[in-house]
Amino acid sequence: MEKLNKDIITEAYSKQEIVEQLTQLGLASDMTVEVHSKFSSAGFIIGGPAAFNDALLQVVGENGNIVMPCQDYYNTEPLFWENPPVSMNLTDKIRENTPGYDIYTSGHRLMGVLVDDIRSRKNAYHSYHPNCGFVSIGKDSKYLMSNQPLSFPLGMKSPIGKMYQMDNSYTLLVGVDYDNCTSWHLAEHMSMVRGIILQGGCIKKAGKDIWKKYLDYDLNSDEFIEIGRQYEKSAQVKIAKVANSVCRFFKMKEAIDFAYEYLKKKYER
C-alpha cells in the first residue's frame, strides 16, 4: 500500500500580508535594500518567490531599489575551494574548462530562489563579475550595477560601496544570519585587516572564455555572526518575522561602520 503524505499546509501567506509585514519591519518607499534570503524559512507563500519579490518591490516603490548578491562560487580560483575542496591535480582542468561568466546563464549556487527570480526579470540590471556579481531592480539600478571592478570587487567602487554612499540604504536578512551579510565585506576592505590573495575566474571577452587573475582580500564572513551579535546590543537592528522567517533589518552605512571599527580594534597591532 502506498504510504500517504501526512504533511499538510497549515499556514499560507499572501503577497499583501508580506507587504504589511515588511512595512511593519521598517521597509518604506524610496529605500535601497540589499536582501539576503533563505526562502524555505518563510513557509508557504502563495505565488512563491515571485510574490515575495513583488512585495519587496511594492514596498520600496518606483523610486527605491532592491539589490541582491548574485554570485557563482565555482567560478573562482579552485585552490581556495573548501566546501568541498578539490584535488590539486584537477585545478588546471577546472580553470581551462570553466565557462565564462554570463549574467543570464551562469550558475549562482547557494544564492537562493529569490535571486533566481529577480535575475530572470526583464527590468533587472546586473553587475559583471565572475564571482562577486549583483542584480538589482529599481530607479538607481543601472548606476549601482555599472563598472564593478574585477580586482577588489567588494570595495568602495562596487555596488556595495555605492550603496554605502547613499543616504537611504539598508540591509535585510530573511531567515539567514549575519555571515550572509555581503555588505560587511566592505568593512573588511576599508579596514585592510585581511591579507591579499591572487584570485581567479573565467569571463567572456570577444566571444571567448578567458581565465583572468585578479587581486582580492582573503575575506572571512565567519566573524560576521559575532559582529552582528554585538551590533544588535546597540538596538539599531529591527528583528521580526515576515511569514515564518526571522528577519533582521538595519541601516547599511551604520552597520558597515560598526563592523569596520570592530575589525580595526580586534586586529590593530
Characterization of the model:
The chain is of the alpha+beta class. The protein has nine helices and nine strands. The protein has helices at residues 15-25, 48-60, 91-97, 113-119, 141-145, 159-164, 185-191, 224-232, 252-267, and strands at residues 32-37, 65-69, 125-126, 134-138, 169-174, 196-205, 208-217, 238-242, 245-251. The protein has a seven-stranded mixed sheet. Strand 8 and strand 9 form a beta hairpin. Helix 2 (48-60) packs across helix 4 (113-119), helix 7 (185-191) crosses helix 9 and helix 8 packs across helix 9 (252-267). The longest helix has 16 residues, at 252-267. The chain is globular and about 50 Å long. The N and C termini lie far apart (69 Å). The mean pLDDT is 93.
- Structural Rg: 19 Å
User: Strand pairing plus helix content: what structural class?
Assistant: alpha+beta
Strand line-up of the largest beta sheet: 3-4-2-1-5-9-8
Percent of residues in beta strands?
15-25%
Q: Main β-sheet, in a few words? A: 7 strands, mixed
Distance between the termini: 69 Å
Strand segment count: 9
| H/E topology pattern | HEHEHHEEHHEHEEHEEH
Shape: globular
User: Which stretches of 5+ consecutive residues score pLDDT under 50?
Assistant: none
Mean pLDDT: 93
Estimate percent helicity: 25-40%
Number of helices: 9
Please write out the topology.
Blueprint: H1 15-25, E1 32-37, H2 48-60, E2 65-69, H3 91-97, H4 113-119, E3 125-126, E4 134-138, H5 141-145, H6 159-164, E5 169-174, H7 185-191, E6 196-205, E7 208-217, H8 224-232, E8 238-242, E9 245-251, H9 252-267
Parallel strand pairs: 1-2, 1-5
Antiparallel strand pairs: 2-4, 3-4, 5-9, 6-7, 8-9
Helix pairs in contact: 1-2, 2-4, 7-9, 8-9
